[in-house]
Design goal:
Length: 80
């Protein structure tokens, strides 16, 4: 995926919303550490930690993870 398609820095709230729209489960605060939150893929049960400050490089890493799990990265970016 070209880096220019990934938006620059965004908020944790927008990233969580994008994961939720793809079908991920947002776990309660007790599963995150401090200001971090966790999301779980319903197909595999794999968990992803979402930082409170989401920089472009971290967002690119989330896009890679979404792709590895078989989801459409363009849909993920569209929901941000």
């Amino acid at each position: 995926m070209p880096r220019d398609k990934v938006p620059s820095d965004t908020t944790q709230r927008k990233v969580l919303k994008a994961f939720r729209k793809l079908g991920f489960e947002i776990l309660p605060h007790k599963y995150g550490k401090g200001s971090h939150r966790m999301v779980r893929d319903p197909k595999t049960g794999q968990e992803i930690t979402v930082q409170s400050k989401v920089f472009k490089q971290v967002l690119f890493d989330y896009c890679s993870k979404v792709s590895e799990l078989g989801y459409d990265v363009n849909q993920f970016i569209k929901h941000l």
